[in-house]
Prior knowledge:
The protein is mostly helical. The chain has one helix spanning about 5-35.
Amino acid sequence: MEMSAVVMMVIGIVVIWGGLAASIIHAVKKAKQRA
């Protein structure tokens, strides 16, 4: 594996997990506002 390929993989994983975390936090905030 080239170093650049590893870096791109890591960045991709971070972006995907960051997006998931952001959507979960957003959903929790909406749920709290309703209740």
